[in-house]
Structure formats: C-alpha cells, structure tokens
Design brief:
With 412 residues, the protein is α/β, with parallel strands linked by helices. It is built from 14 helices and 17 strands. The protein has two domains: 3-56 and 301-403, Aspartate Aminotransferase, domain 1; 58-299, Aspartate Aminotransferase, domain 2 (3-Layer(aba) Sandwich), CATH 3.40.640. It has helices spanning 3-14, 46-49, 58-70, 81-94, 106-121, 141-145, 150-153, 171-177, 201-214, 284-299, 302-323, 346-354, 377-395, 397-406, and strands spanning 25-29, 32-35, 40-43, 99-103, 128-132, 163-166, 182-187, 190-191, 197-198, 217-221, 245-248, 259-263, 327-333, 336-341, 357-358, 360-361, 366-369. It binds pyridoxal-5'-phosphate.
Length: 412
Amino acid sequence: MSKNEDIAALFNQYVMHTYSPSVTLVRGQGCKVWDADGMVYLDFTAGIAVQNVGHAHPRVVQAVSDQMTTLNHCSNLYYTANQALLAQRLVHLSTLEGKCFFCNSGAEANEALIKLARLWGHEEGRYEIIAMRNSFHGRTLATAAATGQSKIQQGFDPMPVGFTFAEFNDLESVRKLVNERTVAVMLEPVQGEGGLLPATTEFMQGLRALCDEKNLLLLCDEVQSGMGRTGHWFAWQQYGVRPDAFSLAKALASGVPMGAIVASAKLADVFQPGRHASTFGGNPLACAAALATIDVIESEKLVERAQEAGQQLRESLMAFVEKYDQLLDVRGAGLMVGLVLDKPAKDLVTKCREMGLLCCMAGEKVVRFLPPLNVRDDELEEALDILDDALDMLYGEEAEEAEAEETPEAEA
Ligand SMILES: Cc1ncc(COP(=O)(O)O)c(C=O)c1O
C-alpha cells in the first residue's frame, strides 16, 4: 500500500465518516501542497478559503511560534492585548465603529449573530430571521436551521424555530416575509456553498433600505467571502451599504481555528457578561495568527491582488466556456470563482486532482476555485493549463468520439 492509502485506511477506521477525503496531505507552502507519496499539487481550494495568505506564510508562522512560547491561552477571565488589538483592527477595517466578539468557527460566529439579533429584539418579542434559499451558514442546530437547503436539516428535526426563507436577489420575496416577529435579515453577500452567486447591488441596497424602514438588522455572513477573498476586505463593501453586524472565520487566522463577529455601535453592548461566551474564543494564539494575517494582507496588497487575479482567472475560464459545450458560466467575485457545468462536477474535480490541481465543488454542478490571494501569475497559468488538459480529456473531441463509440446505437 502507498503511504496515502495507509493513512486513509487508519483514518477510515477511526474517524467518523462525515467527509469523503481523497488524498493525504502532509505539507503546504504558499500555493502548493504535497501528499504522503510526494505528489505536488497547486492548491486552488486554499483549505476552502482559509489560506488566503498561502500555506505556512513566514510572518504567520513566526507570530504563532512566538505567541505559543509566550502565552497561548489564559481564558477570558483575563484581559489580553492581542484580542483588544485584533478587535480594533477589525472594527477599523470595517468602519462599523462598534465592537467584536470572538469564537472558534464559522458556525459559531453565525450562532453569535443569531443570538445577538434575538437578544436585541427580545423585549419586543421579535426573534424571526429571514434567511435565503440555497444559503449555507453552518452545521450547529441553529445555523443549520438558518441554512436554506433541506439536505442540511434532514434527520435532525425538530429544528430550532424562527427562520424563514426568501429568494436570493429577490427583494419582494424578502418584503413578503416581514411580520411583527421579524428581527433580522441574514445573508451571504456572495453565496459560497450555494454556487458562488453574488448578490446584486440592487438587492443589497434594497435590503438595507427595507431593514431601515422596518427596524430590522441586516446581518452578513462573511465566513467564506471575508478577509479580502472577493477583492474587498469584506464582500458587503462592494455594495455601498453597511450591515449592522457580520461574521468572519475561515481565513481570519490562516488556519488557526477562529471565528468573530463585528457589530456596529447600536449592537456593541447588547451582549453583557454571562450572555454569551467561549473558552477558546479570542485566545492570544488565534489573535496573534489573525493579526499577522491582516498585516500580510495589507503589506502584500492582497485585496487588490484578489481583484486583479480574480479577473484574470474569470476571463480565462470564460474562454473555456466558449470552447466546451459542457461549461455554462463563470460566477463569483475576486478570487471566489465558480465554473458552472451542465452536469455533476465531480469528474472534473477528480481529474484535476489526478493531474495536480486541487479545486472543490460548490453544490453539484459548480467547480469552485479559491486559490491563495497571493497566487502568482505563473501558478495561475499552470492551473489553467492543467484544467484545460482535464477538460480536454473529459469533454474534448476525442473523449466525445470515444463515448459515442461506446454507446450502442439503440441507446444513442
Ligand atoms: C458562508 C459560510 N458560513 C458558515 C460556514 C461554516 O463555517 P465552519 O465550517 O467554520 O463552521 C461556512 C463553511 O463553509 C460558510 O461557507
């Protein structure tokens, strides 16, 4: 057995089968990762939008190592400078002029948004949140209940109540759901798992106006789209509106597990001691990683790089759409890019991996490309070459002819 297979066997014996991993990865550097048998891949998943500054960025490694040997955790019974400094950076970057709460994952950050909204509306008996169809907000019970995909909820009923679902990019469908119990509207400005679908400016601005009119909170889930990924620090910034609060996780601390919410002044003091908490949330280690990540994104101008490289990538993918009938469209923003197929995307993702390019699926028919934001031009080109070869092998003329030959006439 290869080393890849050895580790897979051990994994499958002892780890619950909630995932279907492919190869065993043992090392990462920049945009590249290596598997246990020494094969090297271009990582256009970046750990699902986590490694925005690339694997093992020296400044993040240094910050984490230094913090680990100084004070990695002490609980929130005590003040720590890193948490204060990180909150200050996030509040300033967002210009929301409020405060942050720290936790450990995207689901937990969204859970905090939901609890914050409910507490804010509690005295008036308002708790209902309007979320979007096809959204994804996490796997805890409340965030799964807020997720507009029934497959995420199936088998876990009874689900927590208080969530209704509108059509993404359809303001009227949101307006129709508003009632005396409604407290907030919650959405991903660019739907990630739902297929890399950006909100329209009209929708986002309409939602802000509706929320102002009805005294509702506008909550954005920036877990996947945040930290420069879409060519803006936070995806909502491209719409000329501000949410009342938003969540972050994934790329926030470059792979040290961390989530956060950033809230505007009107929500800044809703959580008081005892109302919400997390043992690990905002510990000095995670905050050191996040502070270093922000430093790298700023000093290497990675927000701008995501815009520029994202445009290059989308244009090149559009050329493939012209070339292959099986490809329908290119979607997304910045370096959060989706290639839409007319068939399940699994074969293409597998073929790319076999040829040295890691990408992943978003829904059944979309291939998602999320390279580190500091992906180099030559790495982009190499990835596109691999993709072109993979597409040719699966859907090129020769592949089509071979398939036609295999198909008996009666069935053709
Ligand atoms: C938009 C969005 N929200 C929430 C989550 C959940 O984050 P986590 O897996 O860290 O709990 C994800 C994860 O993919 C996500 O993409």
